[in-house]
Amino acid sequence: MCPKIEGEKGEREAILEVAKLMQASARTAPKTLGVDDILTMIVYGEEKDAIAEKMNEIAEERKIDGFKRDAKNVKDSEAVVLVGIRGSKSVGLNCGACGYKSCQEFEKARRKKGQDFVGPTCLFKALDLGIALGSAVKIASLLNIDNRIMYRIGTAALKLNFMPEATVVMGIPLSAKGKNIYFDRKWP
Q1: Treating both helix axes as pointing N-terminal to C-terminal, what angle do 123-142 and 7-28 enclose, rounded to 10 degrees?
Q2: What are residue 64's phi and psi, to 5 degrees?
Q3: Which CATH code for domain 7-175?
Q4: Whole-number mean pLDDT of the chain?
Q5: Could you give the CA distance from residue 93 to residue 172 in angstroms, rounded to a whole number?
């Protein structure tokens, strides 16, 4: 008898392989001055479900349905790729976009945990995060794995301390179903 891989098992394995390729793509994405402060992580199973539960808790606390809607997407996904940035480091350009006169002043600033993220964050690090996210979702798209960048996932992941070094985290849920579950979504 020939070995075989049934549909759902093969799809689940494919999603995890694509998630690994997304991590590599985020890592190799261009970065300001070539300084890499990108963080990545793949979560699935209980850890993925913990993010969905935390998102539901936040929805209840804040009375924001978007967290509940996105939590359902996470629950219905096979895996989530987290991409974060160590945004408290500067790149030494003294641009002032962070609100400080110099990068030295920015780096000495007291970090404050905001409602969702930690600030201030260097503008160039935030741009690096965006480029890494774009590179990661490009890979998923090229390999026909449905995905969507969601900030609410990152909020929950930070509250669960999944990426303690990060100042900002975004989540990319991954799915392979007959229809993309991340679009044409209904509000709860």
Answers
A1: 150
A2: -120, 115
A3: 3.40.109.10
A4: 95
A5: 30
Task: Give residue 86's Cα distance to chain centre.
Answer: 13
What confidence tens digit (pLDDT) does each residue in 101-159 have? 999 999 999 999 999 999 999 999 999 999 999 999 999 999 999 999 999 999 999 99
Listed residue (141, 160, 169) closest to 54, CA to CA: 160
- Domain ranges in the chain? 7-175
Q: Average the pLDDT over 57-63 and give the result.
A: 97
**CA distances in angstroms from 21 to 28, 140, 142, 174, listed in the order given:** 11, 8, 11, 13
User: What CA–CA distance (Å, rounded) separates 121 from 8?
Assistant: 41
Residue 3: band (very low, low, confident or very high) from pLDDT cuts 50, 70, 90 = confident
Beta bridge partners of 147: 174
Residue 168 near residue 85, CB atoms below 8 Å: yes
Task: Output the pTM of the full model.
Answer: 0.95
For 181, which DSSP code?
T
Cα distance between residue 21 and residue 18, in whole Å? 5
Which residue type is seen at 1? M
